[in-house]
Amino acid sequence: MSKISKFFKGGGSAASKGRGGPSPQEALTRLRETEEMLSKKQEYLETRIERELAAARHHGTRNKRAALQALKRKKRYEKQLSQIDGTLSTIEFQREALENSHTNTEVLKNMGYAAQAMKKVHENMDLNKIDDLMQDITEQQDVAQEISDAISNRAAFGDEFDE
Prior knowledge:
82% helix; rod-shaped; endosome; membrane; coiled coil; protein transport
């Protein structure tokens, strides 16, 4: 089955149909395939346009009817090329939006996973115990500072001696 018929007839995997829709990877793959197919058609039309223009120049004034027919075909090909350009632009926009949505979904899943891990880490902690512990630490720091101040002060017996 050709890529075009798969695209329009919905030829996809049975697994994606059973789940209610394609996965983001499947959709991205199909969008890329469609972009590739349209790009090839663009190249084909561009060569056809060049051929028709060359034919119109070749016939020039000698055979006006053939030259006009070549220019009409060229114009028709240019219209098709313009339509393909618009379609490609739309597909690129949709692919980028799907990629961004998929990225955002993955980020959100990972943030949820991290939130669960933080919850597990904090489940054994009690705010009252933490507050009491912080008060004990502050008291011990104050005691240590008092001891340090007492040790670092000069002894008073050296100040009374007069030379």
